[in-house]
Amino acid sequence: MSTSVWERPGIVRHAGDIVRSFRHLVGRDLLPPAAAPANLAVMLRDAPFVVLSHGLEADPVLNYGNRAALALWEMDFAELTRMPSRVTAEPMLREERERLLAVAAAKGYIDDYAGVRISSSGRRFRIENAIIWNVQDESGAPRGQAATFDRWTFL
Hints:
Blueprint (H helix, E strand, L loop, with lengths): L8 H18 L10 H10 L3 E5 L7 E4 L1 H7 L3 H4 L13 H14 L1 E10 L5 E13 L5 E8 L1 E4 L1
Antiparallel strand pairs: 1-2, 1-5, 3-4, 4-5, 4-6
């Protein structure tokens, strides 16, 4: 029997890093506390809001997207996690996106992000009130950035 992507130790660990970093930097819980890391990973996977993250590459690649993110971007996990995060925005909007990611990196998080994104099929949507924060592992080492939002409008 094969392990689902959501049960892989690296994904379970990363889900914990996302949730723990959010609590540490933003000062509130992204999810209710879970008894076990695997439970937390399932809760994040099934959350009714979008959660995405990317790594630390020079051109960061997405390394996580929950089911809400996969549905919105119209991709499976494997497709999403091969995509540079800049591709989530239209080309003419990427400079502003990069500027705001830099602000989040410097301050730890921003909580008022809005912008237009584009799905794999070309469907455009505007996200509102997104929070972007730095993701760190348990020792405090940087692992990338994550974003969450629960409001979007198709254009």
